[in-house]
Amino acid sequence: MTGETDEPASILTSEEPAEIPPGVEAVEAAIGHRFSNGELLRVALTHRSYSNERGEEENYERLEFLGDAVLGLVTSHWLFDRYPARAEGDLAKLKSFLVSAPALSRVAEEVGIGALLLLGVGERRSGGHAKASILADALEAVFGAVYLDGGLEAARAVIHPILERTVGERSRSLHTDAKTVLQEQAQARGWGLPVYRLADESGPDHRKRFTVECVVEGEEAGRAEGRSKKAAEQRAAAAALARLDLGPGDA
């Protein structure tokens, strides 16, 4: 008995390096990691719908599981070092934003993952290449693939620049587009989208004042005035962020 089985070896544990699939060099350049085992990246870009259609077992779900853990560890350590004066609650909120599906899906779009996803016919026709949930999952799978290919230091080298960029964008958005930030925070927590209601309108036509209330999960979370409905909504969203303590603070 040799102990061998008839089952094919998984590419995730194979020591044989695979040729890097065509068309992924741009993603490698964008994330700053060149794969020794290119097959890992191919699997990270393979959706279950694609593997099911071809009777294959490998898709990105196991790599996503691993990548989620790697991302959590690297992000927690990065936040711990970067913000030595922040309390645990603040760090937890910022981490929640950084690893949320909206934040990850934007990064996935930026590095070109959507265009390279291997999807089944139905998923492809329904716009799977642009679905935030699929993009976020695939990016986590890529993180898992990087970890298997190069270890924790390689994963850090890929994830740290993404965290820096995302925090910077988040800080700018907090001051310029509170509505978007509030929507992202609500989605990250599984809440419904914020609702804005005109509560009052006063003053002459040339000097109108609008009062808007922002409703989150069925309750008023913020109220503000503005010279326009748009300005009042932004201020109401900012008030809701402050009241609900959803903003991670200045980067």
Provide the descriptors you would attach to this structure in a database record.
single chain; 251 residues; mainly alpha; Ribonuclease iii, N-terminal Endonuclease Domain, Chain A; Double Stranded RNA Binding Domain; 11 helices; disordered N terminus
Instruction: Specify the oligomeric state.
Output: single chain
Coarse morphology: elongated
Helix content: 55-70%
**CATH H-level name of the largest domain... which superfamily?**
Ribonuclease III domain
Helix/strand order = HHHHHHHHHHEEEH
CATH class of the largest domain equals: Mainly Alpha
Strand content: 5-15%
Secondary structure tally, helices: 11
Largest sheet strand order: 1-2-3
What is the count of structural domains?
2
Q: pLDDT average, as an integer?
A: 85
Poorly predicted runs are 1-21
Terminal CA distance: 61 Å
Q: Label the CATH architecture of the largest domain.
A: Orthogonal Bundle
List the topology elements.
Layout: H1 25-31, H2 38-44, H3 48-53, H4 61-82, H5 88-98, H6 101-110, H7 113-116, H8 121-125, H9 132-176, H10 178-188, E1 195-202, E2 209-216, E3 219-226, H11 229-244
Antiparallel strand pairs: 1-2, 2-3
How does this structure look, described?
The chain folds into two domains: 25-176, Ribonuclease iii, N-terminal Endonuclease Domain, Chain A (Orthogonal Bundle), CATH 1.10.1520; 179-244, Double Stranded RNA Binding Domain, CATH 3.30.160. The protein has helices at 25-31, 38-44, 48-53, 61-82, 88-98, 101-110, 113-116, 121-125, 132-176, 178-188, 229-244, and strands at 195-202, 209-216, 219-226. Helix 2 crosses helix 9 (132-176), helix 4 (61-82) packs antiparallel against helix 5 and helix 6 (101-110) crosses helix 9. A hairpin with a 6-residue loop joins strand 1 (195-202) and strand 2 (209-216). Helices cover 57% and strands 10% of the residues.
